[in-house]
Design goal:
It is built from 5 helices and 4 strands; from the N terminus they run H-H-E-H-E-H-H-E-E. It is an alpha+beta fold. The chain has a domain of 131 residues: CAP (Pathogenesis-related Protein p14a, 3-Layer(aba) Sandwich). It has a 4-stranded mixed beta sheet, with helices on both faces. Helix 2 packs parallel to helix 4. The chain is elongated. The protein starts with a helix and ends with a strand.
């Protein structure tokens, strides 16, 4: 084979190889995968983001902490302040139940305080019938006084404990005479209350409907 023929065959082979390479490249470029869109997650530009609407959270109502002065151990310097705070908390519970507020009666306050002293001396128990009618205990004229007692605690904890007990709660929420559906309904009914304690111990609550 002469030199000219060998050069011609080499040129044809080179052209065929180039055509195959170009065709393979085109096939790869036109592969079905090349038509699938590329998707990427991204944040919107700050200018396009919607302005968040602030959420207003309304906290549940809570009882106001008492302002009674205390000693270093947490006991009240004035037991009467604790008693008054219990009356306030009791009336909050009564209002929730639709009952009129109970009004402090100093005779019941004296009788309750005296029973606190008696429990300190003789033990934890309810007062005997007629306790509040005795002159030395205030001379309250009614014999239908209901009574809750409690061992120890601050005003909020003692009221919470009473409210957690059905029997004690029933007394706190007593307002029979204010129910128009009750035969004993009296629109002028007054609910009188007295509370006693000895520095947050030996709690007594006395409640009467007049």
């Amino acid at each position: 084979m002469n030199t000219a023929l060998r050069l011609l065959l080499a040129l044809i082979a080179a052209l065929l190889l180039a055509s195959h390479t170009a065709a393979q490249s085109l096939q790869d470029t036109l592969s079905p995968m090349s038509y699938l869109p590329l998707v990427t997650a991204r944040s919107e530009p700050a200018s396009q983001r919607p302005t968040p609407v602030p959420t207003v959270t309304v906290p549940p109502p809570t009882a106001t902490p008492d302002s009674c002065a205390r000693d270093g151990a947490g006991f009240p310097l004035d037991s009467r302040c604790f008693s008054n705070e219990v009356v306030r908390l009791v009336n909050i519970e009564r209002a929730k139940a639709g009952c009129p507020a109970a009004v402090i009666d100093e005779r019941l306050m004296l009788g309750a305080q005296n029973w606190s002293l008696e429990m300190q001396r003789s033990g934890y128990r309810h007062s005997p019938l007629g306790w509040y009618t005795r002159p030395e205990n205030g001379g309250f004229e009614s014999t239908s006084v209901g009574e809750n007692i409690g061992p120890s605690g601050d005003p909020q904890s003692i009221v919470d404990a009473w409210m957690a007990s059905a029997e004690h709660r029933n007394l706190i929420l007593s307002c029979t005479y204010s129910n128009p559906q009750d035969p004993a309904y009296d629109p002028n009914a007054v609910y009188e209350i007295g509370v006693g304690n000895l520095g947050g111990v030996w709690w007594v609550l006395a409640l009467d409907e007049m």
